[in-house]
Each structure stands twice: as C-alpha cells, then as structure tokens.
Amino acid sequence: MAFKCKATPEWYNTADAGHRKLAGGYHAIHPVQYNCADGEYNEMATLLLTPQETTILQLYSRGTANFFDVPTLIVFTVVFFFCAVTAYGIAVPAGLFIPSMMIGAGMGRLVGVLLNNFAEEELVDTGLYALVGAAAVLGGITRMTISLTVIMVEITNDINYMLPIMLSVAVSKAIGDRYTESLYDVHMELAGIPYLESEAPQIYDAITAESIMSKEVVSIKMNPSVAEIQKALESTHNGFPVIYQGKLGTEDAFAGMASREQLERVLDQGGSVDLSMERFMDNSPYIVQNSSSLRRVLALFRGMGLRHLPVVDILGGKREVIGIISRKDFLDTPHNLTQGLLDDRFKKDTEKFMAKMETFAEEENKRDPRLRDRTKQSKKGSFHGGL
Fold it and tell me: Which of 60, 105, 147, 230 allows an S-S link to 134, with CB 3.0 to 4.6 Å?
C-alpha cells in the first residue's frame, strides 16, 4: 500500500496499556500487519480493514497520540466521507450514525495530532479530540442533544467527558439550526414524507387555507347509491365530505366526513337500494374557513392528529365544501417571507401580510417614537432576511 509500515509500539503487549482501554475495559488498539513485516503494522489497514466499531475504539483510544499520522487520518476521513455519502444516497439500506461517528472521530483526532505536531510534544490527548469531534458531527447531522450526550458518555464509560461532549453537541446543533435543516428532515422532504414541523414559521401567519387546499374534492351524498360509493373508492382519496342536497337553502351543504373504511362498511350493507351515511360518517369533524391562517391549520393537524381537514365556506349562511387539506399539502409551502414572495401561489397573501405588519409598525411608532429605529431594522432584516 501507499502508506508505510510502522513498528508496533512497545506498550502494546505490556502492562502499560491499561490506560489505553475504553468502554468497559476492552483493549482499543488492534494493529493490522497486512503486508508489513513481523512486529510492524500498516496504519491505513488498521483503520479500513477492521470492523467499524473497532475502528471507532482505536480512534478514541487514550495515550496513543503517535499511533496514526496526519496523512493517514486525512485520507481515511476523506475516503470514508465520500463512501458514506454514496452509500446513503443509493437504494440500499445503509445507516448513517456509525459512519458519522467515524468521520467525526477522524477529524477530531486529526486536529489533536496537528496540535501535538505544532507544539512538538504530546500536548493534548488525541483520543479525547476524536470523541469530541464525533459528538460534534453527530450533533450537526442528527440535531439530537441529551440522548446523543448520553450515548457518547456510555461509549467512553467516563462521566468526566460529559462537559466537552455537551459543549460540542450544543455548538454544532446551534450552528446547524442557524444555516440548514437536519439531514433527516431534508431526506424526508426529498422522499415526500408529510412530516409536520412542531413550530410554524412566521410565513404561516400570512398564508391562508385556501392557498394550499386541494380543490379536487370527491364528495358523497347523504343517501348515495352503491355505484356512487364504488366510484368514490376508485379514487386515490382517503377522506370524503358528506353533503346534504336541498338542505339549509343550498344544494351542497356540508354534513360530515367519511373515511375510505367507513364507505366500505356502508357497502357491506349490500343490496342495490340507496344507502344512508348518517350512521357511519363523522357528524362533527374539524373544519376551517378558507380565510383561516396556515398556523391554525397546522395546530389542528398536530394537536388533533388529523389526516384530512375540509375547508368550508360558511359566509352568507352557506356550508359549502370548497376544498380539502391533507398532510402532503404542507410539503410545498414556503418557510419564510422571501420564499413566499417568489412563489406566485403565496405572493398575494405574503404581500398583504407584510403591508399589515408595516401598518401596525407605523401605528406603534406614533405611540412610541423610540420604536422607529427598531422598525427600520425590522424592515431590512425581518421582511427580506428570510424569516
């Protein structure tokens, strides 16, 4: 191989190796001879030709500052990074937790070795730097805090390392949240998984339910025929508004909601006569008006665990269903005001919201002139800074 052989350290088979143990007393260092002579080991083979768990323990090992050199750690980290990225992006089950830990450990140990080389003495413990580096990379990727800290402390089996681990995880998570989303959140978005955020961005106060609702609604009459139910079940919808006809002065008054399972139960009644939805539908489902804010819609979906939410026009005494919202309708919504202005579907609502906020700010300035400077900064930073 391109990496030279090195003599196996004298402490490897001596009693002095005790302080180099990690996580429950197992010896962390496992030199691989590969194509080297007896009593020698190959650094790159020791990292690449051993199980991942063993490689991690070797990188975490204490008191082994000169066991891996700078070129070996650089090549290992870069190669393993590209291998992890490739494996994660293909249609093959491949985890990301252990590879991220190895990449972070390689980067951390590299920093420790560079510091020692710069100081021309064993100034820092490279194993501790590897541990902190692994915690930082995992914190930036997974955005976990407490659980990740506990995992890393259990790996070292040393409570004294908790403070540096906590600091590295907190800093990496804060920096990651400032600039990007979690890798898992990005992957769910690419896969089209309708995952709802716990907190709504400010743009959700500007967008209305009418802007994201689906207008292709498959409704069911209160007394449908078997053919009508079968036609509804042939669609890809899973929620069906039930409507009255000739009630409340309108032809299509909203009466309730029925799921696909409920329609199948209605068909089990059999026969070719008209059936009744009254005993099977949900008579009091949650609804929103077309002018309701998206923040309210999100709160209903998360708080009530909804799958579908009908949008009903109740102005003028009407109860007409004009659309329906599902979890997938949240996927294409903007995350800040700038994105809302660039999207034609939400531009009108965003401009109206910004005008309302500016009017509110001007009224507040009249009451308290000290707020003028703060309002100017808000216009420059908040409205056009990507809230």
Answer: 105
Nearest to 277 by CA among 223, 337, 342, 196: 223
Helix (H, G, I), strand (E, B) or coil at 206: coil
pLDDT value at residue 273: 57
Q: Compute the distance between CA of residue 221 and CA of residue 228 in angstroms, rounded to an integer.
A: 9
> Which residues, 6 or more positions from 86, have their beta carbon under 8 angstroms from its beta carbon?
none
pTM: 0.66
Under DSSP, the state recorded for 195 is P
What structural domains does the chain harbor?
5-191 (1.10.3080.10), 202-330 (3.10.580.10), 337-383 (no CATH)
User: Is the pLDDT reported for residue 265 higher than 80?
Assistant: yes
Among residues 34, 25, 27, which one has the least CA distance to residue 6? 34
Given this model, what pLDDT does residue 103 score? 93
Give me the residue label for tokens 């962390």. 28
Angle between helices 126-142 and 97-119 in degrees, nearest 10: 140
**58-97 pLDDT, tens digit each:** 888 887 878 888 999 999 999 989 988 888 877 776 778 8
